[in-house]
Amino acid sequence: MSAAERSRTSTAAYGSWLTPLTSQRLVAAATRVGELAVAGDGALWWSESRPSEGGRVVLVRRSPEGQLTDLVPAGINVRTRVHEYGGGAWWLVDDEAWFADFADQRLYRVTPGTEPATVTAEPAIPSGERFADGHPGPRTGLVTCVRERHTADNEVHNEIVTVGTDGRIEVLVSGPDFVSDPRWSTDGRLCWLQWDHPNMPWDGTELTVRTRNGIELRVAGGTEESISQPTWGTDGSLYFLSDRTGWWNLYRWAGGADGTGGSVDPVLVLDAEIGRPQWVFGLSRYALLDDGRIVAAACRDAFDALYVVEADGSSRVLDLPYSAYGQLRAVPGGVVCLAGSPTAESSIIRISAADGAVEIVSAARDLGLAATWFAVPEALSFPSGAAGRTAHALVYPPTNPDVTAPDGEIPPLIVMIHGGPTSMAQPMLDLSVQYWTSRGFTVADVNYGGSTGYGRPYRDLLRDNWGVVDVEDCVACARHLAAIGRVDPARMAITGGSAGGYTTLAVLTFVPGVFSAGASHYGVADLALLAADTHKFESRYLDRLVGPLPEAQTIYDERSPIKHADSLRTPLAVFQGLEDKVVLPEQAELIVNALARNGVDHAALFFAGEQHGFRKAENIRSALDGELSFYAQMFGFELPIAEEIPPIEIRRVSPGEA
Q1: Nearest alpha-carbon partner for 286 in 242, 346, 343
Q2: Is the dihedral angle over the CA atoms 345, 346, 350, 351 positive or is it negative?
Q3: 3-class secondary structure per residue, 99-140
Q4: Is omega for the bond preceding 138 within 30 degrees of 0, making it cis?
Q5: Is the pTM higher than 0.90?
Q6: What is the CA radius of gyration of the chain?
Q7: For the chain, domain boundaries
Q8: 268 with 251: CB under 8 angstroms?
Q9: Rounded to whole angstroms, how far apart are CA atoms 159 and 173?
Q10: Of 600, 532, 538, 519, residue with least CA distance to 566
Q11: For residues 32, 35, 38 and 43, what is the CA-based torsion angle, rounded to 10 degrees?
Q12: Which of 215, 195, 208 is nearest to 253 (CA)?
C-alpha cells in the first residue's frame, strides 16, 4: 500500500476491521439457484433457496419476454429427501413442472397461473415415499423418476418407476442399492445408473441400457469406474462422463437400438474434471446443442473453463471472465448456465457457443460494493505428509480498502475445510469467506487429498485414510503459511462443517498445539456412531474411507476424536442443527460434554428446526457472528462496535465441575 493510500485509511488490528460485509448483508436478498430447465416455449425455469423465507425452495419462471413469476405458493418447499441431500426435486414435462414438496414428499404438478395439483397418494409412513431425478416418458402422461421407499421395518428401497398423472406407479428397475439418471431415448430405450454398497457414486457406477425388446446391457462402468450424467443425443447416441483415464471426461456410445454394436469413443478428453461427485441429483456439466456442438465445463486446479466441441470433434476454450460453472442447458446457439467468479456471485447467463458472447439472464444480487472489497484467491500448492506429496488450497488475503493493520502485525489465519469429504473449494465469490477477509483474516480453503478437481488418484488418497491425509494437509497448509510469514502462528483457527467438522475435531485432538481455536459445524465426533446411525446413502461410505466394520473397529476408535477426548484441549465453538439426520445431534453433545470435563473454553449453539446445514437466515447469522465472537475472545481483538454483534457465551468449566 502506498503512502497516499495509507493516509486515506484507518488503522486497526487484524480481526477488528469494520466491514460492510456483515452477516446481515450475507443473508439480505440472498438466494441460491439450484437447477435450471428450458421449457418448450423458450421460458427458463429455476429453483432458488431463500434464507429469508426459512430456507424455502421456490420454483421461478422467466418468460421469453423476461417476466419473473413464482410458481408455487407460500408453504410449498420444493425439496426432496432422496439420499437426504436431495437435488432433482423437480423437472419439466413440456411446459408443466412436476415437483416434490418437502413437507410430505409427495409429487405435485403445476403450470403457470394454476395452483399445484397433487399427483401421488399419501404414503402409509409419513414421507415414506420420496421422488427425485425425473424425466418425461416413455409415453404422454407418464414421467420416469427415482423413488426411495421407506418401510415400517426401516428398510429403504431405491427404484426407478413411472408415475402417471393419475398417481399410478409402476416399477421399472429394482434390486440395486442405488439408481439414478433414468433417461429415455427418442427410439424407446431406457438408460440409468446403478451402484451397490459399499461404493459411493464417485467410486464406481454402472451405466445400463434396456433396449425396446427388454435386453439389458452394461455400456460402461463398474466398481472402479465412476459414470455420471448420461444424456441421449438426437441421433440415438448416448453421452456420459467417465473417470476411466483418471479424470471425469466425456464419452459417446453409439450402440444399436437392438443392443448390438456399441463402441465407447472419447469426445472430450482432458487432464481436467468435467464431472463432479454425485452428492445430489440433477448435476449438468455439459450440454448437447441442436447444431451438433457440445459445451462442457472442465476444472483444473480448482478453476473451471468452458470448452466447445465442434461437430468435427475439434475443441476450443471460450475466453470468459468466470471461474465456476454449473447447470449447463442447451438453447439455440449456445447454453444457459450458472457462472461465478472470485469477484462475482453466481448469475444465470446465456453464452454463445460461436464467440463466447455473454447475456445476463438473471443477475446475482447487487451487493453495492466495489470489487476492491473482495479478496481474490491464490491457488497454493505445498508439501504435505512424510512422503512430501503435494496438497492444494485457495488462499485469500486480508482485504479491506478502508482499513490497514499496524506496522509489523501479522494477520490471523482461518483454515476452512470443505465437506464431503469428496468435495472441493472453488474460486467463486462467497460472502462467508469475504466476511472474514474483510475483517483482516487470511483464509485458506484447503483442497486436501481426497478432494475433487485434481483427478481420481488425488481423490483416492483418502481411501482408508480419512482422518490421516486430510489432517496432514490442513496442518501442513497452516504451518506452510506461518513459515513463510504470511500468518501469525499464535492465532490460527480451523473450521469446517460435516466432514470438514470431523477434520477440524481430528486436527485439534490428534495434532494439538498447531491451532489455538476452532469451530465445528455439525461435525462428526464418533466414526462408528456415524456408520451405525446415518442414512442409507452414506451408511457404507466409511468402508472406503476408514474400513469395513467390524473388522476395522480398532481404526475407527483410533481416529474418532470422541474416543480421545482427554486430548481435546483447544478452545472450540460447536454449532449443530437439532433435526440433522446425517450427523446426529448426539455427536455434538458428546464433544461439548468432553470440553466441559476438560475445562476447555468452549461455546455451543443448537438450532431447532435445522437439518444438515443451516438454511434459516437468523441461524446462518447466529452461527457466523457467533464464530467471530468466539475468535475475538480467544485471540484478544475487539469487535466493531457499530455492528452490535452479540457476544457468544464462553463456558469456562474447571475440570471436575462438569
Answers
A1: 242
A2: positive
A3: EEECCCCCEEEECCCCCCEECCCCCCCCCCEEEEEEEECCCC
A4: yes
A5: yes
A6: 25
A7: 3-23+369-643, 284-364
A8: no
A9: 6
A10: 600
A11: -30
A12: 208
| Whole-number pLDDT of residue 28 | 83
Looking only at the bridges linking them, the beta strands covering 56-62 and 442-447 are unpaired
Residue 37 in this model has a pLDDT that exceeds 60: yes
**Amino acid identity, residue 350?**
R
Three-class DSSP category at 207:
strand
438 φ/ψ sector (left φ>0, alpha ψ -120 to 50, else beta): alpha
Question: Per the structure block, which three cell numbers stand in for 646?
Answer: 452479540
Q: What is the mean pLDDT of the chain?
A: 93
Amino acid, res. 613: G
- Taking the alpha carbons of 434, 435, 436, 439 in that order, is the dihedral positive or negative? positive
Residue with cell 460434554: 593
* pLDDT of residue 501 exceeding 50: yes
**How far is 11 from 17, CA to CA, in rounded Å?**
8
Is CATH 3.40.50.1820 correct for 3-23+369-643? Answer: yes
Burial of 265 (C-beta count, 10 Å sphere; 0-12/13-18/19+): exposed
Q: How many CA atoms lie within 13 A of 430 on its CB side?
A: 15
Determine how β-strand 517-521 pairs with β-strand 413-417. unpaired
What span, in angstroms and rounded, lies between the C-alpha atoms of 506 and 563? 11
Q: How far apart are CA 173 and CA 578, in angstroms?
A: 35
pLDDT given for residue 5 in this prediction: 47
Residue 656, classified by CB atoms within 10 Å of its CB into exposed (0-12), middle (13-18) or buried (19+), is exposed
The pLDDT of residue 4: 45
Q: How far apart are CA 591 and CA 603, in angstroms?
A: 11
Helix 469-483 with 499-510: angle, nearest 10 deg:
70
Which cell numbers hold the place of 390? 503435494
Residue 115: Cβ within 10 Å count? 10
Q: Which amino acid is at 231?
A: T
Q: Give the cell for residue 548.
A: 469395513
Q: Quick one: pLDDT at residue 615?
A: 82
Please tell me the total number of residues recorded for the chain in this structure: 658
**Residue 140 to residue 332: CA distance in whole angstroms:** 25
pLDDT tens readout for residues 459-492: 999 999 999 999 999 999 999 999 999 999 999 9
pLDDT at 626 over 60: yes
Q: Which amino acid is at 645?
A: I
Regarding beta strands 44-50 and 344-352, do their DSSP bridges make them parallel or antiparallel, or are they unpaired? Answer: unpaired
The Cα 130–Cα 147 span in angstroms is 6
Tens digit of each residue's pLDDT (9 = 90 or more) over 359-393: 999 998 889 999 999 999 999 999 999 888 999 99
- pLDDT, tens digit (0-9, with 9 covering 90-100), for 603-612: 999 999 898 8
| Interatomic CA distance for residues 285 and 276, integer angstroms | 8
Pairing of strands 10-11, 403-404: parallel
C-alpha closest to that of 640 among 10, 4, 7, 19:
19
Q: Are 157 and 151 in contact (CB under 8 A)?
A: yes
217 band by pLDDT with thresholds 50, 70 and 90: very high
Tell me which DSSP letter residue 643 carries: G
State the residue for C-alpha cell 506461518.
482
In whole angstroms, what is the distance from residue 655 CA to residue 111 CA? Answer: 62
- HSE at residue 41, side-chain half, CA atoms within 13 A, is 15
- Per DSSP bridges, beta strands 90-93 and 344-352 are unpaired
